[in-house]
Automatic annotation (TrEMBL):
UniProt KW Protein biosynthesis keyword: no
Gene: panB
Protein name: 3-methyl-2-oxobutanoate hydroxymethyltransferase
UniProt-annotated binding residues for 3-methyl-2-oxobutanoate: 45-46, 84, 114
Keywords: Cytoplasm, Magnesium, Metal-binding, Methyltransferase, Pantothenate biosynthesis, Transferase
Cofactor or coenzyme needed: Mg(2+)
Pathway: Cofactor biosynthesis; (R)-pantothenate biosynthesis; (R)-pantoate from 3-methyl-2-oxobutanoate: step 1/2
Organism: Paludifilum halophilum
Pfam families listed in its UniProt record: Pantoate_transf (PF02548)
Enzyme Commission identifier(s): 2.1.2.11
């Protein structure tokens, strides 16, 4: 099994081989993603919502990202490991950007960082790339800007916004990003962008024309979340089977059905006898 690198992703675009990416947040999810053969794993700051229970990704810190990236790095070996630069970091000065991104690689074990935003984050992207840190871009619905955008909604619907998105994608590609996530943009727009740039586009809610797809672990496995965005396909109902299992356990404990003999440990008979005697 050959390690996936940024060059692998680029070659996959050239060979029109679709890239399969998924988020992971801990050791077991990372191991499963690796075992299933995904090409890239994203430790998304979506962990704030699906794992930590926040209302948005805004409260997520560099420390949170490190904590989860370390766990994922222990479980995912073959896929390219990407970690999100959390809220506002890309807007700090060059030293702060490099310190945060550098820690995600050096301490966390990430192999690239993902940065939300267009033109305005080019200085941060440039600093990382000059420092040898591969950067994945993220345009369209950028959840760290949810308050600015006025909710989680499709982006680039009018001509001006669409042109701005295409322009941002070109600019980021020129900076040398390794791939570009397009979130919640109309299919026609993601196709235009995918054709316009040499780097792979990875869509989420962006239709089937991107070079790859990414979904949030807890969405595609329907685990712990009740509301699914419309672009998600549920492949397994993990939450449902987990709930069933836990309910069964609770019921058996209450009825004295679990544990049975097979789950018990015993003393050697002589020791038991002496203790009783
Ligand atoms: O945090 C995340 O999970 C993401 C993906 C949805 C692209 O940024
Ligand atoms: Na994210």
């Amino acid at each position: 099994v050959k390690k996936v690198t940024v060059r692998t992703l680029r070659r996959m675009k050239e060979e029109r081989q679709p890239i399969a990416m998924i988020t992971a947040y801990d050791y077991p999810s990372a191991k499963l993603a690796d075992k299933a053969g995904v090409d890239a794993v994203l430790v998304g700051d979506s962990l704030g919502m699906v794992v930590l229970g926040y209302d948005s990704t805004i409260p997520v810190t560099v420390e949170d990202m490190l904590h989860h990236t370390k766990a994922v790095a222990r479980g995912a070996k073959r896929p390219l490991l990407v970690s999100d630069l959390p809220f506002l970091v890309a807007h700090l000065n060059r030293d702060e950007v490099l310190k945060a991104a550098g820690r995600l690689l050096q301490e966390g074990g990430a192999e690239a960082v993902k940065v939300e935003g267009g033109k305005e984050v080019i200085p941060a992207i440039r600093a990382c790339i000059q420092g040898g840190i591969p950067v994945m871009g993220h345009l369209g619905l950028t959840p760290q800007s949810v308050h600015q955008l006025g909710g989680y909604r499709v982006q680039g619907r009018d001509e001006e916004a669409a042109r701005r998105l295409i322009e941002d994608a070109r600019l980021l590609a020129e900076e040398g990003i390794c791939a570009l996530v397009l979130e919640c943009v109309p299919e026609e727009l993601s196709r235009r962008i995918t054709d316009a740039v040499d780097i792979p586009t990875i869509g989420i809610g962006a239709g089937g024309s991107c070079d790859g797809q990414v979904l949030v672990y807890h969405d595609l496995l329907q685990y712990g979340n009740d509301l699914q965005p419309g672009f998600v396909k549920t492949y397994v109902r993990m939450g449902e089977s987990a709930l069933k299992g836990i309910r069964h356990y609770v019921d058996e404990v209450r009825r004295g059905v679990f544990p049975t003999e097979e789950h018990a440990f015993h003393l050697p008979p002589e020791t038991a006898e002496r203790l009783n005697g």
